[in-house]
């Protein structure tokens, strides 16, 4: 058996906190999720795992351990416009690959579409998936679509050392079948590495639950919640297939399996999801945007059935998985992620007190212990109330919906929260933030 643990990291797209059975949804919402629920029972379930405002910033934070305000990965850009991680950034697969791991990614990248910024130039040995966002699958079916002025969306593939190429058109039919393809390729990769007796890092950013929610035809009509529920059941099944591949090949005890979401739920009808007890959706600073599901299993090392409300941030996953693989994180730049390996393995506290939450270039909120201080108030997407002269303060345990401002009665919290913000922002002076669209260094 390999001394180094294998890592399988599966990430859903826009899956809200309250949609899985193990987080209060599942059958209650007409779409049971037995395989993911079982995974949660076998490991650690986090109730306070926090991400960024949407796909691009969260994925950049995962890949670099750095807040997106530092890397310039602030939001999605349409095809053909400059975006993504500069090649100066050091990615998680680069660190893990340097430890002798085989690395593969099957799924959505969203961190740069030009050669040199695609996954196989950023640490992955192989990739199959989409470079940008899933809603592009609907473009070619949209009334008035003009391919002469819009780049056609493609599923791409490639291997390290050569340019990625277009594999096939990403249209609505491809949308239906892509998660099946990603799962099949993931299982094949696992089998190859087990046969080669080589440790591996497998990153599977699935397409579900991003709109348009079109399930594989094998799952059409399976739920009691329409297309959305059908996709939920398909996603659960795909996760189960990958977990089964790990278990069937006798590597479960030496494999860290993670399942999580990149963002809070979708806000657009008819695809709107739910954050359970929390308010809001992604693209806001509400708790429903920040908190998403996170489950990690490592039999014999991570206790089964454990549940924690300790604060964990997506940047922490970069540092923690790097440490678990034997890698050392960069020391020539601010790394915001904390090493939480001791916490995952049984320590009671994560050690994280809080974090700053930016939406694009603006500090919208700061979360500290059980408190959230809002500087801008936008409870729903596009329902902007503006910058607050007197910030709103909420206690998240007593007021999970963030409805009652208790700032006047708890002014003492301003001291530690603003000290945390000041310490974070002072680092911008020594290490200037990368602006969006920054070209790669020569």
From TrEMBL:
Gene Ontology MF term list: arylsulfatase activity; metal ion binding
Keywords tagged on the record: Calcium, Hydrolase, Metal-binding, Signal
CDD domains hit by this protein: ARS_like
Keyword Transcription (UniProt): no
Highest rank taxon of the organism: Bacteria
Domain Sulfatase N-terminal span(s) in chain numbering: 5-325
Entry cofactors: Ca(2+)
Assigned protein family: Belongs to the sulfatase family.
PANTHER family registered for this protein in UniProt: ARYLSULFATASE FAMILY MEMBER (PTHR42693), ARYLSULFATASE G (PTHR42693:SF42)
Protein name according to UniProt: Arylsulfatase
Organism: Caenimonas aquaedulcis
